[in-house]
Automatic annotation (TrEMBL):
The keyword Amino-acid biosynthesis applies. This is Diaminopimelate decarboxylase. GO terms for biological process: lysine biosynthetic process via diaminopimelate. Homodimer. The keyword Transmembrane does not apply. Substrate binds at residues 308, 312, 339, 366. GO terms for molecular function: diaminopimelate decarboxylase activity; pyridoxal phosphate binding. It comes from the Bacteria. The active site is at residue 338. Its cofactor is pyridoxal 5'-phosphate. It is an enzyme of class 4 (lyase).
Length: 409
């Protein structure tokens, strides 16, 4: 909620309306100070154990953000060769990158292994291929599905019995048999429960399951508990209590390490936690329609730029930063796409006028990375504000970008 905390609205002293004039609207803007603060918060909460953060960069792959992560000692979790390449371009050594695929072509796994990244094997057929291909010459990690349902929306729960992700913990015997057969070198166990998980309880439950499972693997160096911490979407929103979680998980983890007889590394792979609150999508009001049923605010953006409200029913707080003292009114805030693309329903906002700039909060994670060119619209530019300076870190697309891959022009 940083922007509203600093009325008149600014990010590190920079006026966002001015930024939309300079770089055009709509515009994604990220506050580097928030990213630094969030990473420090996580590091502090787990200061008592050997903890490593692997940023799940599907949340935001802007190279400037990846470089910032690298600068503050945060490593990477990637899900595709494309993300892996971006990590390398941002200056990461492949050994700092974990590849956590989901049912990919095994050749992608070969590419990642040969480049030096560690792979989280997510199926028995892939484990068999890994064993046949590498024996014990390359290490791997295994993604376990603990069969626990948790997350802010069914679409973002990834560890329940019906989820496609990982190898069910119920197949432990088969996993162990395969490891023995090919002498596979398993150095880590991984699980990722889902996204937007508020309570400590599911995190503790999956940690228990993974650590119990870990007892069957003698050569582990890493326990990776994934991401999924819930951030604040509206003022006063309940979020994951990181201090509490840090204390409880660290205690459980230390006990495990004592029993295991060795100190292991504890990894987390947050996406949202690190970048969601750092990001804003600034849009401009094209037209206000006072309909007998509803007042509609149509903005110069849509589900092509921020799909979360339509995909998960996600709440994104909206501020009218052009008219903050306006009389409160109720609006449906909608986009310009030829689909139903509602950002907010019956939302109270200070009176919105044509041309007013609205800010969507929590746009730093899964905003631009999930955007598209639907309706032949351009993706917005991105600006990173860090150390008091605003830098354009992605230009707005042009017609040329839209046509680049079409043939027969
Ligand atoms: C394997 C894995 N790790 C980490 C994350 C990051 O999740 P979040 O952004 O909720 O922290 C995801 C995304 O759901 C994921 O699939
Ligand atoms: N894209 C989701 C979170 C990650 C899901 C991928 N496993 C969201 O915006 O909430």
């Amino acid at each position: 909620m940083q922007l509203s905390d600093h009325y008149p609205y600014s990010i590190q002293g920079i006026d966002p309306i001015q930024l939309t004039k300079q770089y055009g609207s709509p515009l994604y803007v990220y506050d580097g100070a928030t990213i630094r603060r969030k990473a420090a918060e996580l590091q502090y909460a787990f200061a008592g154990v050997n903890m490593k953060i692997k940023f799940a960069c599907k949340a935001n792959t802007n190279l400037a953000i990846l470089r910032l992560m690298r600068e503050i000692g945060v490593e990477l979790d990637v899900v595709s060769p494309g993300e892996l390449e971006m990590g390398k371009i941002a200056g990461y050594d492949a050994s700092q990158i974990t590849f956590t695929p989901s049912g990919v072509d095994f050749e992608e796994v070969r590419e990642a292994v040969e480049t030096g990244a560690i792979v989280n094997v997510d199926s028995l057929p892939l484990l068999e291929w890994f064993g046949q291909t590498y024996g014990n010459s390359k290490p791997c990690m295994i993604r376990i599905k603990p069969n626990v349902a948790a997350g802010g929306h069914t679409k973002i729960m990834t560890a329940h019995a019906d989820s496609k992700f990982g190898i069910s913990v119920l197949l432990l015997d088969e996993i162990l048999e395969m490891i023995k057969k090919y002498d596979i070198k398993v150095i880590g166990l991984h699980q990722h429960t889902g996204s937007d998980i508020k309570d400590a309880e599911p995190f503790l439950k999956v940690a228990d399951i993974l650590l119990e499972t870990a007892k069957h693997f003698p050569d582990l160096q890493i326990i990776d508990l994934g991401g999924g911490f819930k951030v604040s979407y509206l003022p006063g929103d309940a979020i994951t209590d990181m201090d509490l979680l840090g204390k409880k998980i660290s205690k459980r983890f230390r006990t495990f390490c004592e029993e295991y007889g060795r100190d292991l590394q504890l990894w987390f792979e947050p996406g949202k936690f690190l970048v969601s609150e750092s990001g804003f999508l600034f849009v401009t009001t094209n037209v206000v329609k006072e309909d007998p049923a509803r007042n509609f605010v149509h903005v110069d953006s849509g589900l092509n730029h921020l799909i979360r409200p339509m995909m998960y029913g996600s709440y994104h707080h909206i501020l009218n930063i052009s008219n903050p003292k306006g009389e409160p009114k109720h609006y449906n805030v909608v986009g310009y796409i030829c689909e139903t693309d509602t950002f907010a329903t019956d939302r109270e906002l200070p009176e919105v006028r044509q041309g007013d700039v609205l800010a969507f909060l929590n746009a730093g994670a899964y905003g631009l990375t999930m955007s598209s060119n639907y309706n032949a619209r351009f993706r917005p530019a991105e600006v990173l504000i860090d150390n008091g300076e605003a830098k354009l870190v992605r230009r707005r697309e042009t017609m040329e970008d839209l046509l680049r891959t079409q043939t027969g022009l």
